[in-house]
Amino acid sequence: MDSSNLPNTFESLGIVMEDGKPKFRLNEPAFSTVNIPLSSNLECDDETSFVVLGQSSLDFINNASLIDYQQIQEKSMAVDYKSIISTLSHEEIESKVAELLQENVKLKEMLAQNNRSMKGQFNKLMSWQEELMKVHENHKRKFSETRNMIRLLQEENMELKTKLTSTESMMNSQSSSEQSSKNLYGKHFAALTEDQMRKQCDSFASSKDLSAGFMIKRVEDEFENTSDVDVKQLLELIKRQDRDLHYRQEIISSLKAQLQIFIEKSFEPIKLQMNDNLNTQNNKNRQQFFDNFLHYNEKLSSIVKCYAAQTSRFTNIQDCLKHCIDVLKTIDIKSSSEVQEEPIKALENCRTQLINEQLQNISERQNLIMAQNQFQKIFSDYNSALHELELLREENGKPIEKLDILEQEREELMEKIKIINDEKEQLNSVKEKLIAEQLSFEQRQAGLEEEKASLNSQSMLYETEMKTLQDNMKVMQKRHDDMLELCTKLKEELQQKNIELNGIKARLAIAKDDAETISILKQQLDLYKSDFEEEQKAKQQLVTEREYLTDQLGKLRDYNQKLLVKINGPNPTSVSQEESDEHLADAFCNSCGLYKMPGHWHGPGFCQPVD
């Protein structure tokens, strides 16, 4: 082949020429596409995020590496033997191996980081669950307390209602007993004759200075002398009514005291706290609201005091009116022929007016009780409305704070977007400059490659290629050893995973009753299972790669032998060359397929056969 056509052939195959030598790199696209996102992920925080290598990333790596191997194989089969010469130095190969090791270390660090972050998130979930259970228990306890409080308030309300109904029934029975006594008195005096009436009047006139008890006894004696059945019943009824009246007066006095205490405690002023977190306009409105609220509380407290004084005054007026009515009754009974008719009529009119005043006082007292109930209802409605307003104010304050936070975040994002756009523009300009420099460099390289083609360079290239092939064989052997060590490490990790799986199964057997822990352990088991499957796939991939490398080494060895036969031809030195080929063929172990390094023993009992 002519030396002038070699550069064109390499350029047509897409191989970069440097110093008249073809230069290409193994797995260059895989490194450029895989390592970049991994490095960016390593800069993340351990507690906020973690990287999960799923099936998609592994498939991408496998596909990329497979495409690179296929491209290399096609190029090696398509080009001439002279085009396979590579200028990769020993330092570049070592740098590639160092990059592979660094990538492996990064992957291990990512796995450890994922495990740590998963444990941290699991602990966070458990702590959040415990806090949620505590809050739930607290809400249940408060709900039970409020329910008990409502039940007690309902019981107190029922007791107050029963007391009010009992007092009303007592008052009604009192008024009915008084009316019945009046009717009996009327019937008795209507049944008496004129002589008996005159005798009673004379006796009342003569004994007007005596005490009321003596007069009652005398009247009772006179009623007994008449031996009338209605009079005896009337006296018994009067005695019984006096006892009932005394007992009811005691009950009314105790109820008055309880009513006074209840009125003082029922209308307590509402106390509120002002928050200074709102803006000026809301503070002004709230200050005005609190001023109105305090004014309303003062008015309400004054109304309560006035109501308490009015109820006490009504009770005093009622007692006074009752005393006046009793006095007028005695005067009516003691009235005789000596008393003039005009004062008697005036007293009767006064008595009727006092009775009407008493009835009016009773109706006004009922109206005041109704007003008290209405005030209490208005007060409770006002309190509930105020509480709802407080809740609405708090709920309306939360979205405003959230909007402020979102606005700040939006501004920060806009600033970041501007910075990213500026950096993108800078990167585009740098990229354009690099492309221009690359084009100029390629043009210079093409001119230099056309000037440096000769047979001497080909012989030198052949010698260097032989050295590089030997170096590549050593590198491949070293990589193969590294792969075996990685396989052993993966086996140990698999054993550890199996031990962890057995431990998890034991924990699952112990914690059968706890459904929540079982679900969490199932999730962990699925994660470990996926990790185990990925490790198996990685192991299988390593085995296939090792087989592929051994095949490639065999092909390279055969190809070297063909090249040597073509170069040397039928000459006496071919025998020595064949012996060297046989020596090269014997350099690999038949059992394990590894290169026989000096100082290493191979064969049955020394090495492990290939699966």
Question: What does this protein structure show overall?
Answer:
- There is one protein chain.
- The chain is mainly α and 611 residues long.
- It has a domain at 289-445.
- The chain contains 12 helices and 2 strands; from the N terminus they run H-E-E-H-H-H-H-H-H-H-H-H-H-H.
- The protein has a two-stranded antiparallel ribbon with strand order 1-2.
- Strand 1 (16-18) and strand 2 form a beta hairpin.
- Helix 4 (90-191) runs antiparallel to helix 7 (229-266).
- The relative contact order is 0.05.
- Mean pLDDT is 67; it is low at 26-55, 79-85, 185-216, 269-281 and 572-585.
- GO terms for molecular function: K63-linked polyubiquitin modification-dependent protein binding.
- This is NF-kappa-B essential modulator NEMO CC2-LZ domain-containing protein.
- Residues 90-170, 403-538 form a coiled coil.
- Keywords: Coiled coil.
- Pfam families: CC2-LZ.
